[in-house]
Amino acid sequence: MAWLAWLQNFESTALRSWVAEPVSVRLGSAIILSPTLASNDHHINIESLYSCLASNGVQNFTTTPNDNHCLFNHVIQNPIFTRPVFNKPATIVLPQSKEQLATTISCCTHGSWTIRLRSGGHSYEGLSQTAQTPFVIIDLMNLNRVEIDLESETAWVESGATLGEIYYAISQASDELGFSADSSPTVGSGGHISGGGFGMMSRKYGLASIMSSMHCSSIPRPYFGPWIDGRRRVLGDSRKGTLMMVEYIVAWNMDEDLESHKFLSWLNELYEYVGQFIVDGNPRVSYVNHVDFDLGEIDWRNESSASNAIEISRKWGEKYFLSNYDRLVRAKTDIDPNNVFQHPQSIPPLLGLIKNNKDEL
């Protein structure tokens, strides 16, 4: 899985001045993690998953449970998800090629494991870190190749590459070219581009997703994202017609964690207060890179919720994608009818096709 990014001729080269050379991190298969599993069945099933991975040439994954959470914490950006209340992965797999990635997805699917893909670990709601059901993290850090083609002014970028690695590669190849995306070097390109990819230069040069297209292979597309033309246009048009984007953030120190409810309450009050100044004819919408579970969630374990997923998801789906929500449902149904890649706010497929295709999993 790789992104094709079109590079821009910027008027200055300030983009490269702060980008430090990235450190290449490789973790061996002996890394140990303590999993939180939901049932004894999955405790047995994890051995089958290990066997499936190893027998198909995937060796880079965690195996022996203990208190060493170094790999889980390695790229996590929000420490709140290290709390014991959040489920932890049964294993973390680090595929080293697209073939190993496809194999890992296949093994997880046959074992009925929920899949969480981790590119940079920046999800505000922990979509790459935790799940309601027993799950596996597929960490893409080894799929971080960046190839610059100066003649065509394009770059092939694997989705495990961070934005810092992309910016650094561009800076080494050219003093004039750049890529319009976020200013944080540790953000993963896969999650950032698939969610739109807003940055400081987006008003002038466009979102990262508009400057990108996805190279398709035999691998199922993760977390069905904005490479669909309709969603690209939503983000592009909203960039032209939106006066501002406001991000509400509150942070606290670890020793203040017991008072976190107070800080969150203050933030929610501020959000509601600002809402009264929104003109009725221009309703408040949301940006999917800043995913917000306060807009609603769907519990895929609940058969009643799953059967009404399209209408339940419409509540936040139309805030993220406006009138393109129904088009995305149809595209999701074509691309991932079995809902292999899902989370509490993912685009749902048409339910009938899920039932008809269960035997194929």
Could you characterize the architecture of this molecule?
This is FAD-binding PCMH-type domain-containing protein. Pfam families: BBE, FAD_binding_4. InterPro entries: BBE (IPR012951), FAD-bd_PCMH (IPR016166), FAD-bd_PCMH-like_sf (IPR036318), FAD-bd_PCMH_sub1 (IPR016167), FAD-bd_PCMH_sub2 (IPR016169), Oxid_FAD_bind_N (IPR006094). One of its GO terms (molecular function) is FAD binding. Its cofactor is FAD. This protein folds into 3 domains: 2-24 and 143-219, Uridine Diphospho-n-acetylenolpyruvylglucosamine Reductase, domain 3, CATH 3.30.465.10; 40-139, Uridine Diphospho-n-acetylenolpyruvylglucosamine Reductase, domain 2 (2-Layer Sandwich), CATH 3.30.43.10; 254-360, no CATH class. It has 12 helices and 9 strands. The strands form 3 sheets. The protein has a 4-stranded antiparallel beta sheet. It has helices spanning 40-55, 70-74, 98-110, 163-173, 189-194, 202-205, 229-241, 260-275, 303-307, 309-321, 325-335, 351-357; strands at residues 2-6, 8-9, 91-93, 114-118, 135-139, 146-149, 154-158, 177-178, 212-215. The chain starts with a strand and ends with a helix. With 361 residues, it is an alpha/beta fold.
